[in-house]
Structures are given as C-alpha cells and as structure tokens.
From TrEMBL:
A GO MF label: lyase activity
Protein name: Heparin-sulfate lyase N-terminal domain-containing protein
Keyword Chloroplast: no
Taxonomic source organism: Paenibacillus azoreducens
Heparinase II/III-like C-terminal domain residues: 431-652
Ranges for domain Heparin-sulfate lyase N-terminal: 138-380
Gene3D superfamilies attached to this UniProt entry: 2.70.98.70, Chondroitin AC/alginate lyase (1.50.10.100)
Amino acid sequence: MLTLQTKFRRLKKMPFRIAVKKVAGKAAEQAGFVYREYRIRRKPVSIPAELFRSFVPECAYLVNPADKDGYMKMLLTEGLDADIIRDADRICAHVFDLLGSGDTQLGPSLPWNEDFKSGYRWAKKFYKRIKIVDLDNAADVKVPWELSRFQHLFTLGKAYWLTGDEKYALEFRMQLEDWILQNPVGMSVNWTCAMDVAIRAANWIAAVPFFRESPSIPDAFWENFHASLYLHGRFIRGNLENTGEHTGNHYTADLAGLIALGLYFRGFHVPEDRMQGTGPAEWLAFGLSELEKEMFIQVHPDGTNYEASTSYHRLVAEMFLVTTIWCARNDLGFSAEYLRRLEAMFDFMLQIMKPDGLTPLIGDADDGRYLIVSQYGGWLRNDFRHLLAVAGEFFDRDDFRTAGLCAREDALWIAGGLKPFLQSAYSAMKSSAFPDGGYYVLRSPEVYCLIRCGELSFHGHGAHSHNDQLSFVLNIRGRDIAVDPGTYVYSADYRARNVFRSTAVHNTLQLGGMEQNDMEERNLFLLREQTNAACTRFADSHFAGRHEGYLAKGGIIHNRYITLEQASLIIIDTLEQTAAMTADVPSAAVSLMLAPEIHVSRDREKWLLHAEELTVTLEFEHAAKVELQEAWVSTSYGTRVPSKLLRVDIQSQILKTNIHFEANGGAIG
C-alpha cells in the first residue's frame, strides 16, 4: 500500500523516459477507469436471472444434505446445539463482534459499506475509483469487507437444521437480497478486493445446502442469487491479484473462490461465456492448475508459508485444505507432491503449538479465515486446532486428530465424518526446527520456547513481517511468560501499526534506538530485508543465531545463544564488532514483553514474575539498568490489553539473562 510520497520518490529515481512512460500509462489507466465507470452507470453489470431458472448444481457440496440426521445427532450428542442457536439468534438480531468492535447492534439494515467502528461510509461508485485507505482518518476498510464475507451464514444454516425455525431461512434470504441491492457489481467498496469477493462466494455456496429446500425462499430468490454468484466468478477471473511483486494469500483466495464457483456451476454455461472460451469450466481448470503451482511458490519444503506469519499460515493452509477436500469430493485431485507439502503445513502447525493448545501469533495477524463452521461467536484467534482436526481426518493422522480433539465439529462439517482412533502422544513432542520459514522450537516436559530467526516475508519484501529477528516466546508449564506483542491494527492507526511491528516491543536486542529493518512511517506493508538472519546451531536444548540488521548502520552483528536446562533458560546476547563499526558503539537494550496476566516484583537485583502457582526469577548479568515499562499486547485484530515490558540496558557488549523457574513450594524438574 504505497503512499503518494513513496510513489513520487520512486519516480524521481527512474530514468526520465521510463518515468514519463509510467506516468502516461497510469493516466491511460485512469482514463479507462472513467470510461468503464460511465458504462456501468449507463448499464449496470447484470445477467438475466431467467438463465438460472432450471439450474441445479451438479457438484457434491462440502456439507451433504443427505447426511443431515447424522450431523444433527453429533451436534446434540456433543452438546453444541445451545451455543449454535445462541450465535444464530445474535446474527438475526444483527449483533456482531468483528475485528475488535465488541458486541455491536448494527440496526435493522446491515451497514454493508460502512466501518461501523468509526462511522465512516464508503460511497457507491466504481470500485477502481474508491480510495480504500486514508491514513489520516481512523476508517478501516477491513470492517465492511469482514461483514460482507458472510462467514456467519453457516451458523444460521446449522440453527435452521437444528430447529426447523423459518426465521433463520428468512434472515438468510433478507441479508442476501439486501446485500445484492446495496452492492451493484463493481460499484461498492465490497468489490475493491477480489479476495473478499472469492471468500464471500465460497460462503454463499457453503450455506446453500442448509436452505435450498426452505418453503420461505421462493424460486425467484434462487434465480437472482445464482445470477449474482455467477457474476462473482466473472469478477474474480477479471481481477486476479497476481500482478504484484509476489503472489500470496489474496491470490490463493482468488483461486479457491474460482474453484468453488467452477464446481458449483459445473456443467452449466452462459452462452456468451461459452463462445468466448470462459465461464465455469475455464474457472475450474484455471483454478486447479494455478493452485497446484501456488503450493510450491508460497509453501516451503518444510511446510512453512513464505509470508512469515503464523496467522497467515493458518489462513492459507485452510484455503488449500478446504479446496483440496472439496475437489476430492468431486473426483478432482492434485499431485502427490502437492499433497505431501499440504500435509507438511499441518506438521508445522502441530509442532509450533504450545502445551496449552494455542499458537503464538508471529508476524501480522488479521483474524483471517475462509469458512467458519464452528464457534462463530467465540473462536480464539490463536487456536489452530480446528484445522488439525480436519487434517487428521483427511490425512488419517492420529496425532493431528489428538491435537484437534476439542474441535471435532470442524472435522464433521469439512472432512465429512469422524473416525475412531487411538489418542497419540503428541504432547511428548521434541524440539524442532523449520529453517525455511525461520522458526525454531526448544521443548522440555515443562518448557516451550519458540524463536524467530529467518527470512522476511515474500523472500525479503517483509509485507507481513515484524522486526522480530531472534525474538522468542516462552511458555512454562502451560503458562505464558514472554509473549509476542501481536499486531493490533493496520491502516486504521498507522502509528500503532508501526509500534506493534517495531524492534523495541519484541523480545530481542535493539541497538541505539535503530530498527532491525528500516520502516517507512506511512508504508505499512514493507520491510526490506536487512537482517539476513541465520541459525548457526540448533540442538534439542540449544539455539544459536545471528542477524545483520545493525551491520550497515553501526557495524554490529547481533548474536543470541539460548540454552534450555532442567529448570532454567539461559540467554546470552553479544554485540559482534566488525570493520564497519562506528567510532562509538551505540547503546543497546534488550526487551522482554510479559504476558498480561504476569505480576512483577523485585528482590534486590532479581526480578520475580508470578503466574499463580509458578514463580520465574530473572537475573541479568552485565546490565546497566533494568526498567519496568507499560506496554500493550494484542491477541486479535483491533483489540489490545495492557501489559508490562522489561527493558534491560546493556553495560558492555554482552548480556546474560538467567531465567529460572520453580513451582511455588519447590523447584520444577
């Protein structure tokens, strides 16, 4: 998301002839947008609903209507019905909690084109001429996008099947009719991002089996619904997000949406599309071919996603997995190597899971999901076990099933059933390394320590990366001690965005107030690689790594050594001087972001961290000063809670941190 100032600076650096050509091309593009907007205003994009009068999908759905009784029996047996009905009733009352809004009553007509958190409303105009981000106001375009993804429809459908109450079917119908009316194709903010168009289409399709036989929904509704859904496919195909420097989760969503639409309209064609060689058959073939390719572009051999974010790893893994299962149900498949790499994505997910079942949110996190088939009103953003439950059924892996035991509803809806299995001892996992993605996990029976050390996202572009090289998170006996600060928000508050991705709030060393990778204040999705972080040694109880983020700025390389012992963690930070070192070594400090529930006290030179039955003692050797500061931690988009941060000034060029832990009343071990 480049600012005008950044674009202007780039133009100034270009040769005059190239800059003129680029400006001329941009002017021609804008003129084209004006003409396209004129045409759409004169003749809105549409397709005759009558074409779909006899249309019946030939595909197998994710949810099989013939198995309705089995689904309902499981929900009742597991005692899930009350929560589903409660969530569905809140949806009918238009009470939503999206992206940190808290429970908000949105009124009789849902504000599809508004950030209801700030009150900002986007005008209905040609999508290419809508300014989706203005860093000088607090509006967040993700809010209307999130509501318009319609991920709540699945919950309405479950409640309808559980109760037979037509109010849920009527709510489904009224919301769809209102959205289609308020969002003409290409003429609202909800057409500005093809990814969101694709996710919306997939969620519309996923809800169809629940409501297709409702007596409250006339045939005319389904004709208009299918016409709009078909236009979603045309729009995605014409607005693919693959023209930038790298493809990523947006393009994966585009392809997943095209495949879903291609399956849904399989065997159907609109005459004009068939004549032009496009339409559902082409969407499906293109989507399948491209998704196969993207697996090997976006996912490393060790199963990690190249956007260097655990949250985006979850989103991309979900889109790949759901699409693969949906295709398999329709006798379409991918290569054996594709499936092996997909399985590796869930091996990674399993290995970085903390003892409490949750996963650290490293790098950016925006609550992104594809389909939300369970716990719509209260799913935890740092809990990935629902996907492990699904992967356990698809790959027939008992370790995945065991990890996802608490999320079996997802496996029911997406994988199509639950097989009996023997619980595996996944809880006895050992230390593991994922060098392609830059994640290293030290484990003992009592301790979990995840260290970030590797390439920035998109091979050094840093779009979703933070300045967190050699930072770590620490969990002892299932209790968080040192945590990642999270993300909080994107463009709604660019200053806060920069704080949460800065070096100072991560559990690493900062030299002289510098950033590991330089940040442009108003360029929120760029961190060009300067750290070149590398692990130099990894074993069951030892990690050593380094990064060069301060090499050009101060002639210093940061080295960090972490050793896990029976009841302690020892961290040694050194400042390695090079020939490029400045005359005076800048001051250095190490940060330690504490979990919000930690209570802190001091005993002379020792710092004591209290977490109910656990006490952690910190001792800093060669520290000039230790200061306890106020800080913030965010575990979901748009929310933050107060916490504490220890800031340790280094006296010389080395700092040794001894972290010793004991249960109240005795040492651990």
